[in-house]
Amino acid sequence: MVSWSGTGTRSRASRTYWEVEVGFLGQCMENLLLDQDFWLSSLDQEYVAIEISIQEETLNLIYKGILMQEGSLFASCSSTQMFDSSTPGRDLYMEQGDIALFEPPFLGSGWTVLSLGDGARGTKPKPALEPVIPFHQWFLKSCAENILVGSGKPACDFPCQFATGSCVASVEYDAGGPDELSLEQGDRIIIVGLLVSCFEWFTGRLERTGEVGLVMTTLVRPADSLCEASDIFLEKEERLFFNLKEDQIKEETIALLKKINQNDVGHVYKLDLIDQQDSPKEPTQNVSQGNMDAHQQAELKRKIEEILLKGKMKSKVPNATVTTNGTLEDHSETSKTTLASGPHFTVHPVEEGTTTNQEKFLPLLSFLGGSNYKPEFGALYGQTPERLLATFTGHSDDVDKLVAYLGVARETARKKRLHWSQSRLCFLLGKLCAGRSKFSQARVYFEEALSVPRDGFTDMLMLASIYANLAVIYLMQKNTEKYFALSERIAALLMGIPDCVSTVEKDSEVLKFILKKAVLSHNKMAEARACFLLAKLHWRRGEGADAVPFLERLLVLLAEPPGVRSVAPSHGYLSLGRLYSQLSLPHLCVSSARKATMHPSARLADCLNGMGLVLENTARLYGIRKQDVAIPAQVAPYLSRSLSFTGRFDGVGGTGDLTLSQALTLCLSQLFQKHGMLGHAVRSMHTLIDHHRAPSSSSSGATSIPERNIALVWLAWLHICNSQPEVSLDILDSVLASMPEHCTTPQEGLVHNMRGVALRSTGDLRRAAESYQMAMDVCEEFGDRANRAVAEANLGLLCLKAGAKRLAEQHLTEAVEMLSALEGQEHEVNFTTVLLELGQYYVNQRLLDRGKIYYEWALLMAIKSNHSDNQLSVTRRLCHLYSAVCPDEAQCIIYNEHQLALLATRGDRRQEGEVLETISQLYLSLGTERARRSALDYTKRSLGIFIDLGRREKEANAWLQAGKIYHMLGQTELVDLYVQVAQDVGLSTGDTHFILQLLEAAGDVFFNSSTEREKAVCFYGDRALPIAVRTSNTEVRLRLSNKLVELLLQMKLYGEAVEYALTALDISVQLGNRLNERVAFHRLATLYHCLGQFELAEHHYLKTLSLCPTPLEFDEETLYYVRVYQTLGDIIFYDLKDPYDAAGYYHLALAAAMDIGNKKSQLQLCTRLATIYHNFLVDRELSLFFYQKARAFASDLNVRRINLSPDQIFSSMSQYKTNRVNISEPRNK
């Protein structure tokens, strides 16, 4: 809900209805959803915006539902109908279009209706009604009941609703008071101001006599010259809410832009970090973006030299001092009449009836006399009772004494028949009594002021003041009949005489009555004027929140056909933007400013004011990051539009103000450069160069030489950033040549420093060092320690590139020392950058502790300066340090979370999602349940972002990652769900390569776990492998086949596993990968062994051994020989029953075990050989030999007993057959 104090509460539905109506909803969405680059990339397009379309039926249905919940509602009858009267008498008759207050049925009763014309009530089961629009709904509900109900139904059938011109009296009429005109039938009456048919009276001038007074609308008929007015304003009426002084606004805009730009362009040295930043995002395509040939480069140099020569020939223009106060001056401030210029009178002790008494009153009576209005009267009519006391002196603030004095003066005027003096004295007495809350006495005085006999009222401002004050009293005393009658007369004056508006400034109820009558009679022009008067009344009283609804409605009426002419929409939206800014509604403020600036009626002053509103609300739009977005990209359309008025783009019809044009162009160019659109930045500056050369530039707002040089230096920097250092050197050399030879300036050091950067970019390190040294000398001369530190840092970076590391460290350290001694936030960004570079130097030198210190110092400085770009750069370096250079998961998590917080404030959702992924992986690597739950939380957050951004691949991976973590946490009931959603999202991408990768990763969730590994077979064999075959992705086929073999081995599905093992073998041979070939042979041998195909098993084991590298390099390779030969011996001995060949394999295994000194394997092998020689080959000598060796190993290994009986052999064989699948195989890399 948005509350407007003093005028009720506007619902969110009402505000949304209005935002959709004027197009603000789409613009607010642009501020929230579109990134900064959009505002710059869309400048070349005629109109790019988010358009929100809501079906009117849907919106109306929602609106009606909300109204029904609130209870009573205002609606218009959609057809003529009768209502049963709630009181004795005739039934209530309502015509089509009549607006009334309806109450929905309650407990089976019908609808209840309250007529706003006379307060009559009626009922009907199902009335035909249509709710009024939200503004009318809100306004009518905010009206007090004594204003809302009554005043009768507008019965005039005058053919024009909002007329101007003249009319003719249709009947004879005798005036009922001095404020009315007496008419004869056929009299021609000239309408003073406007005739509004819904009011009973209008102000007219009788053509035959020239008298001005009130005329009843029902007494006249149109004349030939009568027509509908298209203007809601009266002649000479002030139409603006605030004054737009274009020259002042230009000066203030230039001062503001210079203040914002000076750190980036004209005063602060640039650090040479071109390799790390400022790289263009856009491809180089043309002269402004790509490489310039020799002719183009020479042409640019010629233009610049021409500009510099022209500057030398001109006399130096002094800089004007510009105030930076508000750019908008309220009209009310200039139009107020101060009390000091008004009349002053002295109160003397008087007694009624004496001659002396009359003499003392002569000055006062003389001043108040006369039928015509005098400017001095305005001070009296508009003053409050408290300030009225100050007009009279000698009463010691005793109101009774002043009232007595004025009372005697009134009586004296009555006796002397000084009617106008008497009338004005009655008015003053009435105001004083009202100020003392003596309303009945005040009413008597005001009524006497109206009834004093005279020919007619010519002081219409006095008449309006009496009416206004008397109306307030009638309203307070609940005399609604007289209040309505008087309000009708006030309406006639307000529609006819501009000065009368000031009489109702103290009370808005009369204006609300006027608006009510306009709404009930469906008179949109009258409604527009009433809204304007109410909005301006609240504006002058400083009640911005109360002014907003009326100004909003005025702008809607302005846009409706035929529309309200003479109201500049750009001014209206700017006024609305100012009010939104005061109410801390930045999005609506910026939307209003954009609407005002882009409207065809906008002028240069409107564009500059709109830009000021955007800059004023930058901090509110972007939170606390004020330094980062001193100029947000939303300003780009305002800069572009303003430049079109200065003749910057179209060259025709512009104002030709070169100083303003340069300030705007520099600002726009900086925005392009900041967002990596260097081609656009260079092109805009080249156009400014052409504008400088134009003949008109010599006579229209010429810039000073330092300002001109600033623009050229900035152009040089853009060419450096755009990889065109040779062009930059031409510009900088020309600027240097134009400077006085024997008079050094700070700007000279700026140019030398930038020359150093350009020379370094060309590879001329020696001359670059000389330029940096000259820049430091200039800084030394002027005591500029901040820029001296930057030049010192540049020299250090130059030494790094030249390989002089010690010298580089020295210069960088000196720069840090100088920057650390400076005060003020303007140096903190450069300080942070230099600290970061010094830290990077130490990290590269593997002095990690020093590197950490400087990194962390840089981060502290970036946090202190509240500069998120620098914070982000330092944080990313720290993340890389703790993830890749010296891994530390805890520190890496801390800095990644800080990076996440920074990205959240910047609104960079893409990078935010990626950092969330990284943090999730870091928590997952910790391996604890708590860390896994944290990883799950971060994964779900990244999932939400990827869904919002429509990044389907990232979304699928996030779903899969969440399923994987749930599997680790043992929440198996959710795993299948998340994996299935991941698969569905992946399939929706249509990217076969990604789908294959995702399906394999889904299988890995189960494959790499200890439970439900069999679920991986479906993903590998049924889904991923067919895609890999279809796409001929041999590497993935090999990997999937190997994984399937391992799974099927575990599941003891040996026959199915053989097929995948043979596939893996074929692919390995095809790829020529000997390691994969060994793995495939080994697995086939194992499978054949398990299937009982021992000869094949023996063949493949031997083939595996033949593929092993020779000579053996690692103990692991020798151990593999031991195990394979031992396995071969077991196969031959136990399964093929060939002790002799088995002994041979055991001998080979024993030799390999002896080579690596593996006593446990030697014990096993010696025991088996002793058993074979003892029981089967019957070689007692060898049997004893191996038995003794086995006893020696058993003693070393603390094994108590060795059994050589044949029974042990059979039990060993059965044990082997149970565990024979668990044979080690070579690792598949």
Describe it.
- The protein is mostly helical.
- Among the domains are: 2-142, no CATH class; 162-228, SH3 Domains (SH3 type barrels, Roll); 704-822, Alpha Horseshoe (Serine Threonine Protein Phosphatase 5, Tetratricopeptide repeat), CATH 1.25.40.10; 1108-1229, Alpha Horseshoe (Serine Threonine Protein Phosphatase 5, Tetratricopeptide repeat), CATH 1.25.40.
- The protein has 52 helices and 21 strands.
- The chain has a seven-stranded antiparallel beta sheet with strand order 5-4-8-7-6-3-9.
- A hairpin with a 5-residue loop joins strand 14 and strand 15.
- Helix 8 runs parallel beside helix 29 (725-738), helix 28 (705-721) packs parallel to helix 30 (746-762) and helix 30 packs parallel to helix 32 (785-802).
- Mean pLDDT is 84; it is low at 1-9, 278-290, 315-340, 648-655 and 1207-1224.
- Keywords: SH3 domain.
- Residues 162-225 form the SH3 domain.
- This is SH3 domain-containing protein.
- Residues 322-344 are annotated as: Disordered.
- It holds the Pfam family SH3_1.
